[in-house]
């Protein structure tokens, strides 16, 4: 599985926010990672809709994690951001190939996907977040 840029930016945004004790803003994240403010804003909207971050408008506003980093599963974030996590299309359907009724590869790939999801579900944001000091060094 190759993750989309959107998922990459979502994970980076969450990691950034996990290092902060106060609200941050989209521009801070975009600047640190050298990515477009518009892309980060789009990801922030998705993360807010999914309940991973809180977004407050106006003076003193900004974005912050909606729950502790220990309660955010990397696998759940990936699943929320990705539209198709299958290694091949046949794993997600029964009729994408002429040999689907007897193909053993489909089962192997389905098991690989299950193991991958299980692993990622067991990793929390807290497990992967850099220290604030590490992030400050790249600025």
Would you identify the CATH architecture?
Answer: Orthogonal Bundle
Fraction in helix? 40-55%
CATH class identity = Mainly Alpha
Query: In one word, what is the shape?
Result: elongated
How many structural domains does the protein architecture include?
1
Question: If helices are DSSP runs of H or I spanning 4 or more residues, what is the number of helices?
Answer: 7
Radius of gyration: 18 Å
Number of strands: 2
Mean pLDDT: 89
Biggest sheet overview: 2 strands, antiparallel
Structure description:
With 139 residues, the protein is mainly alpha-helical. It has one domain (5-138): Arc Repressor Mutant, subunit A. The protein has helices spanning 5-18, 26-33, 37-49, 74-81, 105-121, 125-128, 132-138, and strands spanning 53-56, 62-65. A two-stranded antiparallel ribbon has the order 1-2. Helix 1 crosses helix 3 and helix 4 packs across helix 5. The longest helix has 17 residues, at 105-121. The radius of gyration is 18 Å and the shape is elongated. The relative contact order is 0.18. The model has no long low-confidence stretch (mean pLDDT 89).
């Amino acid at each position: 599985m190759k993750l989309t840029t959107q998922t990459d930016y979502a994970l980076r945004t969450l990691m950034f926010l996990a290092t902060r004790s106060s609200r941050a803003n989209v521009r801070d994240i975009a600047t640190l990672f050298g990515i477009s403010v518009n892309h980060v804003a789009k990801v922030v909207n998705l993360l807010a809709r999914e309940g991973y971050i809180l977004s407050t408008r106006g003076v003193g506003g900004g974005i912050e994690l909606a729950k502790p980093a220990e309660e955010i599963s990397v696998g759940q974030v990936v699943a929320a951001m990705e539209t198709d996590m299958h290694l091949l299309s046949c794993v997600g359907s029964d009729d994408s190939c002429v040999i689907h009724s007897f193909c053993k590869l489909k089962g192997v790939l389905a098991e690989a996907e299950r193991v991958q999801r299980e692993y990622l579900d067991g990793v929390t944001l807290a497990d992967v977040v850099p220290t604030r000091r590490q992030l400050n060094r790249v600025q």
